[in-house]
Write a structure and sequence with these properties.
Order of helices and strands: EEEEHEEEHEEEHHHHEEH
Number of domains: 2
Strand content: 15-25%
Low-confidence stretches: 265-303
Structural class: alpha+beta
Number of helices: 7
Mean pLDDT: 81
Helix content: 10-25%
CATH class of the largest domain: Mainly Beta
Largest sheet: 8 strands, mixed
Length: about 300
């Protein structure tokens, strides 16, 4: 089992119990690259050096510095930071409860498993878990770890069969860029009702129960094939060309044809490289005009 990300107390008014938070995710990539010299083929080493004489500095001699004026720093030893008196370092006080649907998905950052610290904490843990599960609420509080104070949401797992609690690291609202600033120049033309009806039908036909297991990292597979080809000194096979498709005249035609397509049709994938065929996806995103159609660029600009 991995080391706890955080250990401490969850406090709800006068009720408290000890818990441990464990990361719920892990890196699965098997391909890891090192920086090497193109000429010698040897690993590139990085050293921490002083700016004045470029002499290597030992880790024990490195402290934190806050630049209060240009080129002027106040030194702070890491041990001094560890001794800061912050209640949230060891106590996650639930400040309020909210419905999970009330939390903007853009705020979610990373999930954690919440386990009771020991068997004596299991009773209070179970009561709180059951209450959160039946009310569908999440408790919001803060913990201090990794050099800053984080906002956390505590809730029961969506799978009611699991007898545990989940914690989600949340971003602060101030960390999100203004959506209005980015969407300000997006045009909002009048939507044709017939086109809208076809778009809704397309969504309906392609709607299925979500299963994260169905999605795989094809890029990782392609990298593995590239490494194997290099090791065996064999050429890497080219991606298979997309199946020819009829020309799409306009958006309405594209929607009609999309609705008529088989629902389980998949993108062609080359078995040798794992590369997904480009099909109708242009370099700037999904295009409703089939690749190779004459006047495609002209129609895209006028849309």
């Amino acid at each position: 089992m991995a080391r706890p990300y955080w250990s401490g107390q969850i406090q709800i008014s006068l009720v408290s119990f000890g818990v441990k938070l464990f990361p719920a995710t892990e890196a699965k990539s098997e391909i890891r690259f090192h920086q090497i010299s193109r000429k010698s083929g040897e690993r590139i080493r990085h050293q921490k050096v002083s700016a004045s004489d470029e002499e290597p500095v030992a880790n024990d001699d490195i402290v934190k510095g806050y630049e209060y004026s240009k080129g002027e720093y106040v030194q702070i030893d890491p041990a001094e930071i560890d001794e800061l008196r912050i209640a949230s370092r060891h106590n996650l006080e639930i400040q309020q409860f909210v419905g999970l649907s009330e939390i903007d998905p853009a705020l979610f950052e990373k999930p954690y498993f919440v386990l009771p610290e020991n068997d004596t904490q299991a009773k209070a843990y179970a009561v709180v878990r059951k209450a959160l599960q039946e009310t569908g609420k999440a408790g919001l509080g803060k913990i201090a770890v990794g050099g800053r104070e984080h906002l956390m949401a505590i809730c029961a797992p969506s799978d009611g069969k699991l007898g545990g609690l989940m914690a989600y690291l949340l971003r602060y609202a101030a960390e999100l860029r203004s959506a209005a600033e980015y969407f300000a120049d997006v045009k909002t033309p009048k939507v044709d009702e017939d086109q809208l009806a076809l778009a809704k039908e397309l969504i309906k036909r392609k709607t299925t129960a979500f299963s994260s297991e169905k999605f795989k990292d094809e890029y990782e597979f392609a990298l593995r094939e590239l490494v194997d080809a290099k090791l065996k000194h064999i050429p890497l096979r080219k991606e298979e060309p997309a199946a020819p498709r009829g020309k799409v005249i306009d958006l309405m035609d594209a929607l009609r044809r999309s609705v008529k397509e088989p629902g389980d049709k998949k993108k062609p994938v080359t078995r040798e490289t794992g590369a997904v065929s480009k099909g109708r996806a242009g370099k700037h995103g999904l295009s409703l005009i089939a690749a190779g159609s004459k006047g495609a660029d002209k129609r895209r600009k006028s849309a």
